[in-house]
Amino acid sequence: MSIFTKIINGEIPSYKIAENEDFFVFLDINPNAAGHTLVVPKKEVDQLFDLGDELYLKLFQYSKTVAAAIKKAVPCKRVGLSVIGLEVPHVHVHLIPLNQMADATFGKKEKLTEVEFIALAEKIASFL
Ligand code: 5GP
Fold first, then answer.
1. DSSP letter at 67?
2. Against a cut of 0.85, is the pTM above it?
3. For the chain, how are helix, strand and coil distributed in percent, rounded to 5?
4. Using the 8-state DSSP alphabet, how is residue 24 labeled?
5. Which residues line ligand 1 (CB under 6 A)?
6. What's the Cα-to-Cα distance from 38 to each of 1, 65, 113, rounded to whole Å?
7. Where do the domains of the chain lie, and which CATH numbers do they carry?
8. Among 3, 24, 37, 70, which has the highest number of CB atoms less than 10 A from its own CB?
């Protein structure tokens, strides 16, 4: 079972933003930038391009919706999207508020307090 399935099941806490039948959305615990969000299919599949077509298309449709909420909630030039998966073998889309190229690189990390995480998750959720 992946760490994201444990988060989806509530066995591990997360700064949750939203959930529906197919997806669970929460803040990345080690963000490139404030507001860095993960959109995760509840179905545990390792690699993006192994998703069935229907779930794959739904994932990007829903990521678009979540990105629009991030754009409203977090000051940024644009919201970037990455799919990596080298650390957690459970499909997830990274949605990252971008102001500079470094925000799109996974070497740069932002330290946030618990209060800041909670406020960000609530603010993004308020625009969904
Ligand atoms: P990737 O698999 O795409 O290379 O990276 C996995 C991402 O998931 C990383 O950005 C990492 O910070 C995030 N991550 C890993 N474990 C946890 C966790 O337990 N909670 C949360 N919220 N994010 C996690």
1. H
2. yes
3. 35, 20, 45
4. E
5. 3, 12, 14, 26-30, 84-88
6. 18, 13, 18
7. 3-126 (3.30.428.10)
8. 37
